[in-house]
Specification:
By secondary structure, this protein is an alpha/beta fold. It has two domains: 175 residues, Aspartate Aminotransferase, domain 1 (Alpha-Beta Complex), CATH 3.90.1150; 275 residues, Type I PLP-dependent aspartate aminotransferase-like (Major domain) (Aspartate Aminotransferase, domain 2, 3-Layer(aba) Sandwich). It is built from 14 helices and 15 strands. A seven-stranded mixed β-sheet has the order 4-10-9-8-7-5-6, sandwiched between helices. The structure holds pyridoxal-5'-phosphate (PLP). The site of pyridoxal-5'-phosphate has 15 residues, from α5.
């Protein structure tokens, strides 16, 4: 019911941008909100098209982070908007508890055709966190049904990020995010950072990989294989700073999991739907067929929320029995398989196919990665330049020999300064502490990649001059 004590907001063409910013400040709590008394200065983006976004002053930016690693087919796709409108007019909603719908059935079949091995059963969710939550809850359910209630520990990794619901946050390993929020530590163990950048001087990549694999095996043995339920891992760790584990790592982890009857959950929320040049990266890039894959983001290219947990037939077959008819996986969402989201996802997949975007990513990635690494070579302030496919990270290293506290403050400044310097030049990046990461829409052309890295080049020059002078 309308609250008549409050003024009714005017239609959007009657309100000023200052009013919008003011209302945002007063009434919207953004993700990862800080409680600083000063209001953060959120930019107001009003239009978007292709790889660009336009703010309230009409200034155009390259969307470096691709929204939030999600706008894979680019902005302004009217064909997706039309598919959503058509579906909403024909059937806006029906309960997934009781009914099937054409778009969700067609989408599930199409996803199953692209997943590795026997991962053929799709559980639709509302985003990445709920996909991870569903995967973890399914593993608990699976072991309960199998009569192994003790097999419940999840092994996750430092710097991993799997979402913001309680369970997904509990397996996320970014220390800063846990500082003021509770997570459940009783059933989660964390492996140390796999980032090759921090390996001891002189250590080979192969030795680093073997050390990381040994840590996983040791942890399983330490907890007891009969108590470890699953290992959860992003193929490359995205929000933790685009950490690309050493070659052979994912395969080695899967072999260890198989040896100890531990399930492998591959969190492809970022890597799925083309970021590394394939629908899914687990098998095509890293040679593994996990037991469960989670995805979201690129599934709809951010046009509307949707995620999925995709299960192996083997797992389901193991727990399907006649006398289990009353055993229920009591997990689900009002909007599981939402027909409008499914229609958007189907059109998104059409675009990826019709425009050969997976091939395009494979074609332009080497150039993207070469330009990225050249910045690492060129500037003293860049400690590491790393990435894969169309995702990259520049890690600042302002004063590598200074004391920890001082270095941390300076590093924070690097992320912030890079953000400001790039934005000034028409490029949005995502600052994460001492890093700046980017994952542009997959439609980015070779020339636009050059434009993006030319801007970064200029921006780093400015930041380096300021910070290292
Ligand atoms: C690997 C990974 N998993 C899960 C999530 C959570 O997804 P969402 O924000 O859609 O809940 C994210 C979000 O960035 C992610 O990067």
């Amino acid at each position: 019911m309308t609250d008549r004590t409050k003024p009714t907001p005017a239609l959007s063409n009657e309100i000023t941008t200052d009013e919008i910013k003011d209302w945002d400040n007063k009434h919207v709590m953004h993700p990862w909100a800080t409680l600083s008394p000063e209001n953060p200065d959120f930019g107001l983006i009003q239009r978007s098209s292709g790889i660009h976004m336009v703010d309230d002053n009409g200034k155009r930016y390259i969307d470096g982070p691709g929204g939030m690693w999600c706008v894979n087919v680019g902005h302004g796709r009217t064909e997706i908007a039309e598919a959503m409108a058509k579906q909403a007019s024909q059937l806006n909603y029906v309960s997934p508890w009781t009914s099937a719908t054409e778009p969700s059935a067609v989408l599930a079949r199409r996803i199953a055709a692209e997943t590795p091995g026997d991962l053929n059963t799709v559980f639709f969710t509302t985003g990445g966190s709920s996909a991870v939550d569903t995967a973890l809850r399914f593993v608990q359910f699976y072991n309960n049904v199998k009569g192994r209630p003790e097999k419940k520990t999840f092994i996750a990794r430092e710097k991993g990020y799997h979402g913001s619901t309680y369970l997904a946050a509990s397996v996320s390993g970014k220390e800063r995010d846990r500082k003021f929020l509770d997570t459940n530590r009783d059933f989660v163990r964390f492996l140390p950072n796999v980032n090759p950048y921090i390996r001891p001087d002189g250590m080979s990549m192969d030795d680093w990989r073997d050390e990381k694999l040994a840590e996983l095996e040791e942890m399983i043995k330490d907890v007891g294989a009969d108590k470890v339920a699953a290992f959860i891992a992003e193929p490359i760790l995205a929000s933790g700073g685009v950490i690309v584990p050493p070659e052979g790592y994912q395969k080695g982890c899967l072999e260890i999991c198989r040896k100890y009857d531990v399930l492998y959950i591959s969190d492809e929320v970022v890597t799925g739907f083309g970021r590394l040049g394939h629908w899914f990266a687990s098998e095509k890039v890293f040679g593994i067929t996990p037991d469960i894959i989670t995805c979201a983001k690129g599934l709809t290219s951010g046009y509307v929320p949707m995620g999925a947990a995709i299960f192996s037939d083997r797992l389901l077959d193991e727990i399907k029995h006649d006398d289990h008819a009353d055993i229920m996986f009591s997990n689900g969402y009002t909007y599981s398989g939402h027909p409008v989201s499914a229609a958007a996802a189907l059109k998104n997949m059409d675009i990826i196919e019709d425009e050969n975007l997976l091939e395009h990513v494979r074609e332009v990635s080497p150039h993207f990665q070469a330009r990225l690494r050249a910045l690492g070579e060129k500037y003293r302030i860049i400690g590491d330049a790393r990435g894969m496919g169309l995702v990259g990270c520049l890690e600042g290293s302002a004063l590598p020999d200074s004391p920890e506290k001082e270095r941390r403050d300076i590093d924070y400044e690097f992320g912030h300064k890079m953000d400001v310097a790039a934005e000034k030049r028409g490029l949005l990046v995502r600052p994460i502490i001492n890093m700046c990461v980017f994952s542009p829409p997959l439609i980015i052309s070779r020339d636009e990649i050059d434009e993006m890295f030319d801007i970064l080049d200029d921006a780093i020059a400015e930041v380096e001059a300021e910070m290292l002078s």
